[in-house]
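Our platform keeps sequence and structure together, in a single record for each protein. Because each token names a local backbone shape, the row as a whole describes the fold. One such record is reproduced below, unchanged from the form in which we store it:
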Amino acid sequence: MISDATTRKAIPMRFPSLLRQATLAFSFVLLAPVLAHAADEQAPATVAEALKEAAQQHRPVLVDFSAVWCYSCYYMASHVLTGPEWNAVKHKAIVVESDADSPDAQLWMKKLNISFLPSYVVLDANGNELGRIAAEQPRDKFYARIDAILAHGDTLQDFEKQARQGSVDDVANALEAYQARNDGVAGLGWFASLPAATQKAARKQPRVTLALDQLTLLKASDANNDPAVIRSAQKVLAQNIGCQRPYVLDNLLEASAKLPEARRKALLAPQRAALDDYVNTQVLVPSPACADQRSAVLTSADVDKLLGDSAAEKAVLDRAIALTRQHLGTNLASDRNQADNLRAYLVRAGRKDELDAVQRQLIAAYPDDYVYAYRYGRSLLDGGNPAEALPYLNKAADKSYGANRLAVTLQQVRALKALHKDAEARKLASDVLAANGPWYPRQAAALKAELQS
């Protein structure tokens, strides 16, 4: 599964479809992850292997759910999962990288209700969750949180127990844990079960108020209740939400999509000043306070477009492109997160010639995975150049696996059909479906449909 360049949802890289895919029982050795922070050759290959080691060594397991197409994962790999702090974590816990496109990861993502990439989940030797961190985080915040989880192993049940004994801080901790688990219904239900006096005291705390509003927004979003999403998003946006602002604005943009243009503009116009201030002071600055610059830039451009301010839309994209180029210099391999951000900004700005050049540079800079050859091949194919696209798609196929392999094959089949090589397309699809199809029914169905179209 390959994320679209500009996908942003509630929290970076949230893909609910992963949780809906059927997962079959299997015996599967996880393919070696290709992210830059890959563990050494002795690292466990699957979560099951890590849990077995945990039982023997009496250490917790830290599961790093990530993917080769996940730009937020690039940030973590380059800027956070490095240095003495990360080495210390690997001494405290058994770290296993779980590739979201593998059957093993999808089984555990479904079990743990993981819908954000990256996600970092700490388990005890029995597979019980001790805590989690969802989405990319600045270095200081990540280590403060992961060290606390590893030191104390506070589970959701522990927070709930302390909350029932009157701890307001643990009310907030529990609600935030439900939010990290993407479970608004359960979180709100648990809060409603607390004694009335505890609820009243807790509601006086800003952390609790914000967490309740965010859980209400999550519940409305999961129910596809657009009016409720709009109401909840406005309440959340009125608070000090820091780096979450672009994601909540995305909720508001999506939920208001079917409204009349004038009504939609009236909803979004009051948000522009706070968003501009956020971008100007926390994102497009030499030392950004927020890890996810891309979502802020693209959301800002989306709001400007909706409000009919094409000059502002162009300006924020041009500024982001210039600052990113300045950061990278001529070496796209120096920071993959920023390099991929540059690609996404060029896509959004419609600067095709520059985009094509950057995509070719990315293929050269990251030759050991399929992503950039796939993206460039697909762009050529979508542009009506199947003969030029096919070599890039074939290159991507050599590096792809699992769900990725099916996605790449779909585009190879499209290219082969456009070149009137139908027999070759059928043979390719048949081989790939036999090897990968049973574990990925949705992608397999799309490939079969392409063959029949």
About this structure: The domain at 17-153 is CATH 3.40.30.10 (Glutaredoxin). Confidence is low (pLDDT under 50) at residues 4-41. The first helix runs from residue 17 to 20. Residues 302 and 313 are 7 Å apart (CA to CA).
